[in-house]
Automatic annotation (TrEMBL):
Gene3D superfamilies linked to this entry: 1.10.1410.40, 3.30.460.90
Pfam families: Mab-21 (PF03281), Mab-21_C (PF20266)
Main location class: membrane
The protein, known as: ITPRIP like 2
Length: 517
């Protein structure tokens, strides 16, 4: 919701002009009423008029002077002596910075729980009906094709309480069920293969094993030919072929639910080769605040147990060149969103009731987006990838576990946000920020970690970026924090707020952003 603030530079001159006009009108009416006596006192009306105008002008100047003393200067609410001593570009005090951050959060980042709740309810109802219809149409006796399990898993920032600005983008995992009696054999590529692109070191291969006593050329040939690729005599489940089948299957099933949903909302599907299926929803709601166009990304997922899922690789990773022995379509990404939600729930229990750790993450997202508006290409495109929401969230996890928990109380918002910025700056300069779950032995014991994650090779999330890019990102990050008051004021002006909102990440396709948001 847009918040309007009073512009004193316009308000006080208008008040002065209005009062002057009223005084002139009063003097004109009075002189006209006392016209017979005007000869005896020709200058009786001019003196009060001049006195009134002079008093109003002096009052206006006094108010402008007081406004400049209290908060109109570049240095915020500090006295002029302090401003001149620290220079015009000196950072504001902790209290002033926190006040500005709180204002920025409330006016531009904070989501209304009412609007977010209605948006999630719309998404759950519509996706639920679509998934049930797709499951029903896929249940064919003797069919050796994947089928929908019938449920869906809500992931991303909208369900982790750190989404910013508008509830217009959602991520939904749609679990698939493979033909019965098939077994999966997973292997993480890690760093064991020479020449492997850094973006692919967290990728998995998914080899299929036929049931005991079954031969591939007989009963499983249709599935093998339609959904697998053969490498070195073994059959691997293809993420590209599964994704293509899922898109076609959901598109065919959409017509079965459109007539039931046409009174509730307008629905359309956007399917591009190699990209996840996106469901666009425009509710026909009686609530004006909930009349928001939403983009829901439907992600086909292969369940592995322990709330782990295989998904197709992200767009950023798909641009990398794999090793010659591993075609790109044979690689999968591992989704650990449920483990992250459990970790966030445990952190919520450990931190104070008024903890600011999620607000710090939201504010850092907001500052990143504001700073990205003024960066030149091609670094502007790299900025959002280096500081993706997944990387920011991973840095927050690592910093939180350093403790103490009481240091994250709301009153220390500015200090904790500065700690997060400095910690992330150090990670960028060292070129190392490890994946929080893959091969990490420091995960709290209270958060159960599946065996597959414990035995996986550690993955550096920053390995995909070169040293000059990380150095420039570290410099810009620290500069963004030092110039945060100036950047917030600049992009909070009506000239920028009137611009159309940022496109949904499902449309702009920011790569790693979709892993967490």
């Amino acid at each position: 919701m847009t918040v309007y603030t009073l512009n004193l530079r316009v308000f006080w001159p208008l008040v002065t002009c209005l009062c002057t006009a009223l005084v002139c009108l009063y003097q004109a009416v009075r002189s006209r009423a006392g016209a017979p006596d005007s000869d005896s006192a020709p200058d009786s009306g001019s003196v009060p008029l001049l006195k009134g105008s002079a008093l109003l002008l002096l009052g206006f100047l006094l108010l402008r002077y007081c406004a400049s003393r209290s908060g109109g200067g570049e240095c915020g609410p500090r006295p002029r002596a302090a401003c001149s001593a620290r220079g015009p570009e000196a950072p504001p005090s902790s209290a002033a910075r926190r006040s500005l951050l709180e204002s920025f959060y409330e006016q531009q980042l904070r989501l209304s729980p009412h609007v977010l709740g209605h948006s999630k309810a719309h998404v759950s109802r519509i996706v639920g009906e679509l998934v049930r219809a797709a499951k029903a149409q896929g249940l064919q006796p003797g069919s050796l094709t994947p089928t929908l399990r019938g449920d869906f898993v809500q992931i991303g920032s909208a369900y982790e309480q750190h989404k910013v600005r508008s509830p217009d983008c959602f991520d939904i995992l749609v679990p698939l069920r493979l033909p019965p009696r098939l077994e999966l054999e997973l292997r993480c590529l890690g760093a064991e293969e020479p020449g492997l692109a850094p973006e692919l070191r967290s990728a998995f291969t998914c080899a299929l094993k036929a049931p005991q006593g079954a031969a591939w050329p007989r009963g499983y040939r249709p599935f093998s030919e339609g959904f697998c690729v053969e490498l070195q005599g073994r059959r691997y489940l293809s993420s590209a072929l599964v994704l293509r089948w899922f898109q076609g299957h959901v598109q065919r099933c959409l017509g079965a639910v459109l007539y039931r949903l046409q009174e509730r909302c307008r629905i359309s599907l956007a399917a591009c080769p190699g990209r996840q299926l996106t469901l666009h929803i425009l509710p026909r709601s009686d609530y004006v605040c909930c009349h928001i166009s939403m983009a829901v990304r439907l992600i086909p997922a292969i369940p592995l147990g322990d709330s782990l899922y295989l998904i197709a690789l992200q767009p950023g990773a798909r641009k990398a060149q794999p090793a010659a022995a591993r075609p790109l379509q044979a690689l999968w990404g591992l989704n650990v969103s449920k483990q992250e939600q459990r970790l966030l729930s445990w952190l919520r229990e450990q931190t104070p009731a008024n903890s600011c750790h999620l607000k710090c993450l939201q504010l850092l997202k907001g500052l990143r987006d504001l700073r990205g508006r003024g960066l030149e290409q091609p670094f502007g495109a790299q900025w959002s990838r280096v500081l993706s929401s997944y990387i920011l969230k991973t840095a927050l996890f690592s910093l939180l576990l350093r403790g103490p928990w009481q240091a994250w109380e709301e009153q220390f918002l500015a200090e904790r946000l500065e700690d997060l910025v400095l910690y992330l700056r150090d990670c960028l300069q060292k070129r190392v920020l490890m994946h929080f779950f893959l091969g990490n032995a420091s995960v709290p014991e209270a958060v159960p970690v599946p065996k597959l994650l414990k035995e996986a090779a550690p993955v550096n999330l920053l390995a995909a970026f070169d040293a000059p890019t990380l150095d420039l990102a570290a410099f810009q990050l620290l500069n963004t924090w030092n110039q945060a008051p100036k950047i917030i004021r600049m992009y909070s002006s009506p000239r920028y707020l009137r611009k159309s909102p940022t496109l949904c990440k499902h449309i702009t396709d920011t790569g790693q952003e979709s892993q967490s948001n």
